[in-house]
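The methods section describes the discrete structure representation at length, but only in general terms. Since the whole study asks how a given chain folds, the encoding of that fold should be made plain. An entry of this sort, consisting of the sequence and the corresponding backbone structure tokens, reads as follows:

. . .
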Amino acid sequence: MDPLERTTKTKSYPPMPAEPARRVLITGGAGFLGVNAAHHMIKAGWYVTLLDNLSRPGTERNLKWLITRYPDRATFIKEDVRNAGALAEHVRQQDAIVHLAGQVAVTTSLVDPNTDFDVNARGTLNLLEAVRLHNHDAPFLFASTNKVYGQLDESNSACKETQPLDFHSPYGCSKGAADQYVRDYSRVFEMNTVVLRQSCIYGAHQYGTEDQGWVAHFVHSILQERPLTIYGDGSQVRDLLDARDLSALYAAAIEKIGITRGEIYNVGGGPENQRNLLEVIDQIGELTGKKPQFTFAGWREGDQKFYVSDVSKARRDLGWEPKIDFDRGLRELVSWAESVS
């Protein structure tokens, strides 16, 4: 029987062993970031519980891959962080919480701000409260976003954590509110919370859409010879980070919670891995041997023309920095995408 057919709203598959090693709960655990984090943590000896509502395309495929690969090291719970009453039982007995669940697209937030708020802001508060009341001392990592900084100026310099917040879009507001709740719960409730303001993450198990996960969206579209729409002029610059490097940062932030507690970190590929959209499209074309097809459309609300993370704080506190350069990471993403096409 397919592992997914044996899951229900309230039960998990497979059952957790009586005495696992350390346990980590990953919300959004069947998503792209979640499955990469779970894979990393399992290899490091953790027992992983994945909590996900499976609403995003590709999550069932990711979940099946992980459960099949590690049937004795992972548990899946089908649940939604908006369901506050169900969260207490899932956070108990966990040695760490990695909160990745969320509404992930600026464009979706513009169409449906209420759902965006309910998932990102209210959902995060629900989880924080569950942990505060039922597992107070567990390290709690939150995946925030560079969108909390808004449009930024055009200085083209790497962004530090001291950059003033300037939410721009409902998505920026909902993630920004959650970001500040997570930070403040460390100060007022003395919880072990950490905020990670993430830039453009890419890698295997990312299916991507036009609205979010643009590197993978470009890769899958070019492989399948589907035309792309480039919003703006294609000169937008981002620093690109492989999900495997991000997963290593999650683990380091948990291991060094005495240092990271209450802190905020900008997390991305840094200046060494910055590219603009047209450069990435050209690279994908070279790697796939296919000619990318694309047209241009107007700029989208909330789209930053330049964003590169200054990762020096994470380097200083955690000894962390990106290990996988973008050329290698993109090559391996293309290889994975070809294997699942």
Residues 3-202+241-271+308-324 form a domain with the Rossmann fold fold (CATH 3.40.50.720). DSSP finds twelve helices and 14 strands in the chain.
